[in-house]
Specification:
homodimer; alpha/beta; two-stranded antiparallel sheet; globular
Chain lengths: ~375, ~375
């Protein structure tokens, strides 16, 4: 029998493969870079959509090893050349889909360094970077600096976090659920309805509001229906508006809805995933008047900032409401240390570990700047 | 006033910056590659942990533009050189944290091509790839091929998806919540408790079970307490076991707990985020006997497969239970088309858009193989 030392030596050699040498890395990198360059130089010629099933056999794997060359060939034929090409200029549906090269470099660096961006103590720099990005968004939407926020994987989780905070603030749970009422437009994104089911509000009353001729919420009717619900012993608790609906682009009357929610003491949620970043343009800025009245706001950098899929954002004014479900309360000591310095992303999200997605946003924003 | 054509021409020139030329890309790429190489060649010399706050001013940004060189300098001093270095060999706490170079190349490619991996029709290849990875995991854990699964951002969202399915299958909602009971070890990961709050089960009864001398659930007592709860008119509905707890590495008696859950008709959830992939080793395989009895199972490729943070997985046998909250049911027509071919990730997850995280797992698994 080999000694333990000898065994370790053998295993070390085998595991070495997972740490390629400089030369091996350069060779892998060169192939991937050539692939990316070929893709970017030819993207204009790709059709925006190819309706064709992927060949499963080319994407499955068994225990054996394959060369990168072979894998890239299959990736190209089955993944890249089929379905939608969101990075292509021909893709006119919805918002454009990515293509920011510096974001891809950010993702590469994030994976190489593998920072843990969930808790401040583990990576003060990564967490500070993500919080600074959130601070910037607070500034452009006129949210107070004390608001908390999170970089999510997209608009759906961002909406889920906001709705959870609203639910917790108003303690909508158990037998109170069926009497409680949420008001929103029939044009609200379906992820709102999905989030409600996920967070246990499947049986809440959802009032689909009447729209005006521009597909915006009719606010006169909104106040009336809330009053009626109150009279009937129901429990109105939240109005959800959209700043840019997916189907029509309509921005609901944000200021008026803000007044109504204040009058009736309701949570005011605005889903601006689709349209929010148009606030950065001179000509459309004024359409967002009143967005600062929201208790919670969702915006999607992977839409309005053209970043690759996988980065949304939520801003919420009431930190206590957010922490109720997301903060791990038994962890007193460790958190006491860090709360003063920076908010932990893990306390504002269902995620504990997560992709360090701040870098893919920070790098392009810094390199290209906000203004032209 | 300029004509519209002239205005567009001016804007086109400005926006060109977002699409760097081949030469510009190569220059950016070269700097990032040099940074990554320097990091990987020196990681052995970095301390495993540096307790030092990040300098906010170096990470914040205003509207101006900065050079990549300047940004990488700040990234290095504030992010890379502070906090935990999980990719370092000196980082002995918990499981090792990443450092698989081919995963980083996968993330780079995913961001450049920006495939939308949420729905089959948008990227049949990306979705097929993710489903094939899930099929592989079904195979190694002896789950049926009909089980559904999802590549999540980590163990927390994976657990949340599983618990949501359990809740929906047993219709634990409204006034039924406070009478219902979940059984788990005091060693269960805190993300389970967090997930319960998020999905609206804050007031459910949670029984922390007695452990034996090896920190495993005492199964004799488990059966007894379930019977007592039933006698007292309560509603036992789920047992949560761990296959590798974070603190002690204990694997609960999976087979025996499986029998008990079948006898009492309870949902059986196993959190194997921490220990699951040890099933791939000859010597530890037998410890996982019974894991195939679970109704839902969580495993974390960013732990046992050393992938970068941001990739977990969940497998669930009852597709209907999962779809209840996550599938967007009004979308009949489009889904009818695709259900036959492949499950849409968006129907098994709170996420709609998300990072195309399959590629960072597929590329390394294929290149390095499963067996040494």
């Amino acid at each position: 029998m080999d000694s333990l030392e000898e065994k370790i030596e053998v295993l070390q050699k085998i595991s070495q493969e997972l740490e390629p040498s400089f030369k091996e890395r350069e060779s892998l990198n060169e192939q991937v870079r050539a692939f990316a360059n070929h893709f970017l130089e030819n993207i204009e010629t790709y059709p925006a959509y190819v309706e064709e099933d992927a060949v499963i056999e080319k994407l499955t794997f068994n225990s054996g090893k394959k060369t990168l060359k072979e894998l890239l060939t299959n990736f190209n034929s089955e993944v890249v050349l089929k379905g939608i090409k969101p990075a292509s200029g021909k893709h006119l549906g919805y918002v454009p889909g990515g293509g920011i090269y510096t974001a891809a470099l950010g993702d590469f660096l994030a994976s190489v360094t593998n920072e843990y961006a969930g808790m401040y103590y583990a990576s003060p720099g990564a967490v500070t970077m993500e919080n600074e990005l959130l601070n910037w968004m607070k500034k452009i939407f006129n949210f107070p600096k004390e608001a908390v926020g999170n970089l999510t994987s997209g608009g759906s989780i961002a909406n889920l976090i906001a709705l959870t905070a609203a639910r917790d603030k108003y303690q909508i749970k158990n037998d109170k659920i069926q009497k409680s009422v949420i008001y929103l437009s029939p044009q609200a994104h379906h992820c709102i309805h999905k989030a409600l089911r996920i967070i246990g509000l499947e049986d809440i009353k959802v009032r689909l509001l009447e729209l005006d001729e521009f597909s915006k919420i009719n606010t006169a009717k909104l106040a009336k229906i809330i009053q009626e619900d109150l009279k009937n012993g129901l429990n109105p608790f939240m109005v959800i508006a959209s700043a840019g609906t997916t189907d029509t682009g309509a921005i609901d009357p944000l200021s008026t809805i803000g007044e109504i929610t204040k009058n009736f003491n309701l949570w005011y949620h605005i889903d601006a995933a689709y349209g929010g970043f148009f606030i950065l343009t001179e000509s459309k800025k004024k359409l967002f008047k009143g967005i600062e009245l929201a208790d919670s706001l969702v915006i999607d950098p992977h839409k309005g900032l053209f970043l690759p899929y996988g980065i949304g954002a939520v801003l919420i004014k009431d930190k206590k409401a957010v922490f109720h479900s997301h903060h791990y309360t038994a962890d007193y000591m460790q958190d006491a240390n860090t709360v003063a310095a920076q908010i932990n992303p893990a306390d504002v999200s269902p995620e504990l570990t997560k992709h360090y997605r701040g870098l893919r946003m920070w790098l392009p924003l810094q390199i290209h700047g906000i203004e032209p």
